[in-house]
Write a structure and sequence with these properties.
Length: 245
């Protein structure tokens, strides 16, 4: 398995970083996790044809994780994709279906069948992918009630099994604890280093993870720890390179 972080930036745009997106090549399949702004351009730069992406999964609906989704669909459509595509969504599939229509992007006119399913269904069709819900959006309860919205606060982390070891993409987290069983024994983790307390990230040392890629920005506390003496196996996530497992 190999993977490439197409976007490693936090929610606040940075000049030198793209927004959240990870491309995984595993057993001949191309999996795209999150579609932050810039992902289409990155895929184009890598020379992939429109038919090469096998599946897309969105961890949650914050703009830094979904902002490139509609351009990705437009690119696949205009580049003549013909292979069916399933996109796994965290919640409220109708929001995406209606948004496509609103943008005059009618999937009925696409040259490929575009289907939407719930992230919780991903393992049924792709047993090499395991998911776990995260606590990232749980703090929104009061705001959701206050405006009478129907958001379900769903956010997911994914583990992709590989022959030589597994990869976990945490997406955004409040704590690492919420996905501890998903992480245990994996080879590499791309972890949100911005939101959780530094102690939560350092705890990954105890979960037998060989490589911890600090992604999505970094908290001041963790940045200080890394400057003093970075724990073994901990490194800053980099865009524009392939990581192998
Ligand atoms: Zn984010």
């Amino acid at each position: 398995m190999r993977f490439r972080i197409l976007g490693s930036g936090p929610g606040l745009p940075q000049l030198d970083k793209n927004l959240s997106s990870v491309l995984v090549e595993q057993a001949g399949k191309l999996i795209l996790l999150d579609t932050g702004e810039g992902c289409s351009k990155s895929l184009l730069g890598l020379g992939y044809s429109a038919d090469q992406i096998d599946l897309v999964a969105i961890s949650h609906y914050h703009p830094d994780h979904i902002s490139g989704f509609f351009m990705l669909m437009q690119m696949l459509y205009l580049n003549g994709r013909s292979k069916p595509l399933t996109v796994y969504l965290p919640e409220n599939k109708d929001f995406i279906i209606e948004s496509l229509k609103t943008m005059y992007t009618f999937r009925e006119k696409f040259g490929f069948k575009l289907e939407f399913k719930d992230c919780s269904e991903i393992g049924a069709e792709h047993p090499q992918i395991v998911f776990a819900p995260t606590d990232h959006l749980l703090g929104y309860q009061k705001q959701i009630e206050a405006v009478g919205a129907k958001n379900q606060m769903k956010s997911f982390a994914f583990r992709i099994k590989g022959e030589r070891g597994d990869l976990v993409y945490s997406s955004d987290l409040s704590t690492v604890d919420c996905i501890e069983p998903l992480i245990k024994g994996c080879h590499s983790i791309i972890v949100d280093a911005l939101h959780p307390d530094a102690a939560q990230i350092i705890k990954l040392k105890d979960l037998s993870v060989k490589r911890v890629l600090l992604n999505h920005g970094i908290s001041d506390e963790l940045d200080m720890i890394m400057a003093e003496a970075s724990p073994e196996g901990f490194e800053f996530a980099e865009e524009n390179r392939w990581y192998e497992i």
